[in-house]
Design brief:
- The protein is built from seven helices and six strands.
- The protein is of the alpha/beta class.
- Strands 2-1-3-4-6-5 form a six-stranded mixed sheet, covered by helices on one side.
- Helix 5 packs across helix 6.
- The chain is globular, with a radius of gyration of 17 Å.
- 32% of the residues are buried.
Length: 222
């Protein structure tokens, strides 16, 4: 059997240690990564006003962060979360909405992610997935982190207890984690290749949300 070609992408997967740490710290990271707001704005813009899923699956190590937002949008829906520690493949059902943000890059083998998605969906499932775009070099990854920091006007003072508008503490190592996440992510071309391999390319649209993130969503949302 030939080796999995997706393990040879020019990326640096997250280590198991960093994955374990991310489960505990991702909420803090996302208090910094405000680009998630653009992802929700895009999602709300695309949604049909009458769409009201009875059950939703969130694929993310920041599941509680996204669960809070989706419960606000769909208060009558049953929301299930799947992250690196809380569910087994056998626990999955078929969901009307599968929502995932910044989770694909966490997998050493991205097909593990797509297998979860396929097990949890059917032809009528609304798919909404977003993740980072891997820069073409280490230097560009560092520049991307720096530009993001400037754009958000974050004051990184290692001697102070940083907070954001909800007065929750921000992980002061967020830049290092963000940089690692960028290096572990996929390019748009790699994403499109994977979608073609799993026969989703004709069913979803892929768009840029920002210079750092893409979104992939079901075409029948339009």
């Amino acid at each position: 059997m030939s080796p999995n070609p997706y393990l040879s992408f020019s990326r640096i997967p997250l280590s198991n240690t960093s994955l374990a740490n991310r489960i505990e710290e991702t909420k803090l990271d996302f208090n910094v990564i405000h680009e998630s707001e653009a992802i929700f704005e895009k999602f709300l813009h695309l949604l049909h006003k009458k769409f009201s899923p009875s059950n939703i699956l969130i694929l993310s190590d920041s599941d509680e962060f996204f669960k809070e937002k989706l419960v606000t949008i769909f208060p009558a829906s049953k929301v299930t979360t799947y992250n690196s520690s809380n569910l087994k493949m056998t626990d999955l059902d078929s969901y009307e909405l599968v929502f995932s943000v910044c989770y694909l890059h966490s997998f050493t083998d991205p097909f593990d992610f797509w297998t979860i998605l396929q097990r949890a969906s059917n032809e009528n499932t609304v798919i909404y997935i977003s993740d980072y775009i891997r820069p073409s070099s280490f230097e560009k990854a560092k520049e991307s982190v720096h530009r993001f920091e400037l754009s958000q006007e974050i004051k990184n003072d290692s001697n102070s207890n940083l907070t954001h508008k909800s007065n929750q503490p921000i992980n002061v190592n967020w830049k290092e984690k963000f940089y690692d996440a960028l290096l572990a992510s996929f390019t748009i071309e790699e994403l499109e290749t994977m979608l073609s391999q799993i026969r989703l390319s004709n069913k979803v649209n892929v768009e840029l949300v920002s210079e750092r993130q893409w979104v992939c969503y079901s075409r029948f949302l339009l």
